[in-house]
Amino acid sequence: MIANANNNKTPNNPSPSPAVVDKDFTDSFDLTEQSANLEITEPGIYELTGELIDHSVIVNANGEVTLYLNNATISAVEMAAIANVTPNALTIELADGTENILSDGGASDYDGCIYSDGALTIKGDSGKLDVTGKQAEGEGITTKSNDITIDGGVINVF
Q: How far apart, in whole angstroms, are the C-alpha atoms of residue 156 and residue 158?
């Protein structure tokens, strides 16, 4: 995994506190501490909290990955906010009672704000996900495999 630390948090717009979770995560990342794209290179379950500005989360693992969004905001500029660049499955799970926000900059080779080469599942009970896709020829959420499953949560695509 590649993770560079830098505080990109806007003082006037603090992120809500993460939900208390009892899960066995492979790793947890406070996105506020990232100064570059976060690349996930190993299969597993990863908790993402905080705010990532101008960068993306790139999944490039040799197996299935779950991204557990826990009051996460990702505002990408040059590509998808979340991009799974492998044919392996990607699951995005929304922590209960959280609000998660994703947006892209519209200048990418990927056709969505959330993009996956492999199957994509978005799930959650009471978690919320707002997706703002700005790709000219794309969507808010897209996969190369055309295999998308929505299993709960409140999902708004703009």
A: 7
Quote the pTM value: 0.85
Please state, in angstroms and rounded to a whole number, the distance separating the CA atoms of residues 52 and 63: 24
Name the 3-class secondary structure at 123.
strand
In 3D, which of 24, 28, 41, 111 has the Cα closest to residue 72?
Answer: 28
> Which residues are bridge partners to 30 per DSSP?
49
What averages of pLDDT result for each successive group of 10 residues across the chain (158 residues)? 35 56 87 96 97 96 97 93 96 97 83 92 96 80 91 93
Q: What is the rounded distance in angstroms from the CA atom of residue 117 to the CA atom of residue 119?
A: 7
Contact 52, 79 (CB under 8 A): no
